[in-house]
Amino acid sequence: MTHALRSLARALALPAVLFALWGLVSAGSKSFYLPPLHAILGVFGSTWSSRLTSDVLPSIGRLLIGYAGAVIAGVALGVPLGGRPRLRAALEPALELFRAIPPPALVPVFMLLFGIGTPMKLLVIVSGAVWPVLLNTIEGVRAVDEVLSDTCRCYGITGLTRLRVLVLRGASPQIVTGMRQALSIAIILMVISEMFASSSGLGYAIVDFQRAFSIPQMWSGILLLGALGVVLSLGFGVFEARALRWYHGQRSEHREGG
Amino acid sequence: MTQLLEVRRLRKIYEGHGRIVEAIGDLSFACAPGELVCIVGPSGAGKTTLLKCVAGLIAPTTGEVVLGDARVAGPPPGMAVVFQDYGRSLFPWLTVWRNVALPLDHHGAARGELRRLVDDALAEVGLADVHAAYPWQLSGGMQQRVAIARAIAYQPKILLMDEPFAAVDAQTRADLEDLTLRVWRRHGITLLFVTHDIDEAVYMGQRVLILSASPTRVIEDLAIDLAAERDQLATRSSPRFAELRSRVYEHIQRAKRAGAGEVRT
User: Fold this and answer.
1) Chain B (69-108) residues lying within 8 Å, Cβ to Cβ, of chain A
2) Residue B225 gets which letter from DSSP?
3) Does residue B143 sit at the A interface (CB-CB below 8 Å)?
């Protein structure tokens, strides 16, 4: 327990120092565009409590749905691609091409095709966040242990049991790595999709405040996005620790065993 | 007596990267039901290739493997395999109990039956108290016991073991040999046991098939006329054991020299 507290203290130390520095340095700021930290924090509560249902929750909802879509699509495509070398060889050049397109560049296209509503925003998130999941799933499935695979064949373990017990679990360390990368990409794309022709969301609100010269409110939105990222990352850490308990356990066992 | 397993004129050639390797030349043998046959040969004799052909994991180039009355074209039902690399043949994300239960569960065993078979198998290998542990929390010898328990619970007609104790220490190895003999006797399984260890082959086997260097043939099919009950001390120190051991040893040495000669010319 003391160990956990100590590591928590170590993790929080630098952010706390940086925030304190920001507060001190900006305390006497007369700059219109760089308001003091206490002014930003002062408007934080009132700004976002009134925009909770109109901006904050819709953003988080789109983020989570788009992220889930990216994870499902990435794993669903990655499993057959990882398991079939010929299919992979045939599709890899096309995948490399699509991957090279920066997802924000697709926003105008998606707007033309799907309008400016929620479907467009979800597509933007999926189109960017799917790649790390897809590529890591392919690698993970390729790396599934040959002896384990032979074991499954010998015991006649096929179909869904094989998929669930061998392929997905065997590839899970790589899949989780891809999911972690995808999460930060999804947050970025959630904001970007809302900055174009939108009427709600955190990205929209930040642009809206900037245009209205509500500078402390604009900064408070950036702080909120940072906090959202930290919370999601912590939540992901809990998920990862549970899903990969065997993996980390096995690795530390090997290290101790020499 | 009708045979349970027949390997007929098996030949396996690997092609790839501009090289053709004849792993198995021409190999035939048979096992009667309930027999314990050890296969021993110099390293690189294609022992693992042979076992994988018998298991239906790879297809022979020519020849055939017949189990019961069916030609093996893929892993057949009623067959279990214990691999050398225990660290890679158990699922690290499943507990010991789930590892043993998985094949039965997949094939739809009833709850009560499943629990009884898994509990009994784990008790039989001396692991009744580690059901909830993960394989990587156990020593190498214990992990191989889990693999053996999984094979027992599956109730196979034939069990293949591919150098199963090559990676454990000598003391553990002796324990596992005796455990395997007890399991074989108790369940009346047909056991095909591949090893590179001459002493182990003679100690375990009713018959020892001595293989040549690659391209592999059977040099000799040696009946082991030791007492049925084997004992690590008494059996291994008996004069007959020493004779049989020397005989296998000479064959293997000759096979090695012949193999080395072929490579050099």
Assistant:
1) 74-75, 77, 79-81, 83, 85, 88-89, 91-94, 102-103, 106-107
2) -
3) no
